[in-house]
Specification:
The protein is an alpha/beta fold. 30% of the residues lie in helices and 24% in strands.
Length: 105
């Protein structure tokens, strides 16, 4: 990414293999219309399904997508909190937004 993003969208994901593809496509579709640079960060928190592999495959389709894999959890931090914190720390912008992948049933 040549220019620093204006917006970072963090998506914590745990066992979201079924929902993640449409979520990523929808987010990218809407953000492509924006006049600013953005990034999408999927944080896979040790999913037991194919979430990690699906997210990684989408990096070739969505140019501003990054995937972070968390294999273990620090003591005392819940999965969702750890994913949010990890994604926000990894973001490149000063403007962050966190979303869940379950926007589609």
């Amino acid at each position: 990414m040549a220019q620093k993003p204006f917006l970072s969208v963090v998506i914590p994901a745990y066992n979201e293999a079924k929902r993640l593809p449409l979520t990523l496509i929808d987010i990218d579709k809407h953000l492509q219309k924006a006049s600013f640079v953005y990034e999408i960060i999927v944080v896979d928190n040790n999913s037991k399904d194919a979430t990690k592999e699906i997210a990684q495959r989408f990096t070739s389709i969505i140019k501003n997508l990054r995937v972070i894999i968390i294999d273990d959890l620090p003591i005392g931090i819940t999965r969702l909190n750890d994913s949010h914190i990890t994604g926000i720390r990894a973001s490149s912008s000063l403007n962050g937004l966190t979303l869940t992948a379950n926007n589609h049933s």
